Amino acid sequence: MRIFQKEAQLGEIFLKFIDIYSDPIVVFEPERHEILYMNQKAKYFLGENSDLSTFFQKDEYLNFIKLIKDCHKIEENRVISFKRNEDKKGVLLFSLYPVAYDDYRIVCFTFKDITEKINKKEEKRRKNAQLILQDKLKSVDLVTSSISHEINNICNFMVNNLKITFQVWNDIFTIIKEYEDENGEFLIGGISSSEIDKVIPRLMISVIDGITRISDTIDDFRKYVKEGLKSETAVIDINEVVRRVVTILNHHIFIYTENFNFNFTEGLPKIKGNVQKLEQLIINLLMNALQSLPNRQRGVFISTGIKLNKVYIEINDEGAGIPKSIMPYIYEPFFSTKYSSGGSGLGLYLSKSIVEDFGGEISIHSEENKGTTVTIYLPYFLENGKF
Ligand SMILES: Nc1ncnc2c1ncn2[C@@H]1O[C@H](COP(=O)(O)OP(=O)(O)OP(=O)(O)O)[C@@H](O)[C@H]1O
Ligand SMILES: [Mg+2]
Predict the structure, then answer these.
(1) Do residues 257 and 363 share a domain?
(2) Where does residue 86 fall: left (phi above 0), alpha (psi -120 to 50 degrees), or beta otherwise?
(3) Atom 19 (ligand 1) nearest CA
(4) 138 CB neighbour count, 10 Å cutoff
(5) Which of 13, 285, 322, 384 is least enclosed by beta carbons within 10 angstroms?
(6) Same domain as 165, residue 128
(7) 237 and 139 share a domain?
(8) Do 246 and 329 belong together in one domain?
(9) Are residues 206 and 258 in the same domain?
(10) What domain range includes position 280?
(11) pLDDT confidence of residue 184
């Protein structure tokens, strides 16, 4: 009888201990994963609601109750995400302590909210990754500014020389015509004298076009690098940005595929944010798509449009696909399956943070050996309620 009293007292002491414990504790009956008791701290955090299935993501909840059911030894320092307000996710660090008495068993679930800590860590990682990128851009800026200076000099003198050549040509042309009138049609460099007045100007114009393209490309590239070092916000036409990226990557696209297509929806609403970051995002995704192709016959397709109050950019490739086993890691910084070919593993990590800066979402669907579709949804910008 005395022993029984002691045991009853011990039960009460156990509950008191749980109540004054520094962290939230929930006591489970493991077989039916029923909550038997919660201390104040747990109630404060979880509310009076004893149904945790709405508190966790479905698949994580199923794992969690299985863990409780099978808990016969202490499980420490596990993490689980939970639903916070406004669709935001939080993270709990938790431990499970099974307490067995005769053939009766309870499981104590104790946890800490480590969301802020993780967010801070994440912020730090993101800043570091941005610093690495800024550093790279600074050295690229140095190189491109001297290359563009050289190239623009050469382009200028080529254009000047062509102008002189054109004047010379005008004079020579008169002589050719006089000669032709006296002696009849003749060949110059395999071209008939009667055609030469059309052919030579056309050749010269194509040379000028070529020079202009070289100079524009290098200017575009410089602008891209320069703007990367700024962080201004602008109203952006996504089609314009995608077109520019396609021009910048034209050569890469040609190397990786002979099957590149785009399909832009015209008249899309504009978005607001940093143009350079959006360019960087599309470059990352387009390069990933191109690098996944096993041969030049496989294709890459880009489209833009509007869906569910968001504008979207979709990049679809017929590449190797992403194996299911690595899917959970692809957004991790420095995760890459391409280290040997120069990958840094920062592409998707930074892309995700850029999409978040824009207030958008990224979704990736992939099937091994078939290809990958990456879609970015971005909120558009309304001026006086219109776009
Ligand atoms: N379109 C895709 N097709 C197949 N695998 C992809 C695709 N996009 C990403 N991946 C996989 O995800 C990994 C991470 O991509 P991420 O862009 O972050 O880094 P990376 O391309 O390896 O390097 P970096 O972009 O820094 O040059 C890649 O190494 C690759 O395994
Ligand atoms: Mg990449």
Answers:
(1) yes
(2) left
(3) 345
(4) 12
(5) 384
(6) yes
(7) no
(8) yes
(9) no
(10) 231-387
(11) 93
129 lines ligand 1 (CB under 6 A): no
For helices 196-228 and 238-248, the axis angle rounded to 10 degrees is 110
Same domain flag for 299 and 255: yes
CATH of residue 349? 3.30.565.10
Q: Which atom of ligand 1 is nearest to the CA of 348?
A: 18
Q: Whose CA is nearest to atom 20 of ligand 1?
A: 345
Reported residue count of the chain is: 387
Cα(285) to ligand 2 centroid in Å equals: 7
**Are 250 and 341 found together in one domain?**
yes
* Residue-level pLDDT at 222: 79
Same domain, 249 and 325: yes
- Domain limit, last residue, from 95, 113, 131: 113
pLDDT, averaged in runs of 10, over the chain (387 residues): 64 88 93 92 84 84 93 92 78 93 90 90 82 77 83 90 91 92 92 91 90 84 73 87 90 94 94 89 95 97 94 98 93 87 85 91 96 96 66
Atom of ligand 1 nearest to the CA of 321: 4
The three-state secondary structure class of 70 is coil
347: CA distance to ligand 1 center in Å? Answer: 7
Is the CB of residue 336 below 6 angstroms from any atom belonging to ligand 1? yes
Probe ligand 1: pick from 136, 288, 355, max atoms within 8 Å of CB? 288
Could you give the angle at the alpha carbon of 207 between the alpha carbons of 204 and 211, nearest 5°?
A: 140
Amino acid, res. 207: V
Q: ∠ CA(77), CA(78), CA(84), 5° rounding?
A: 115
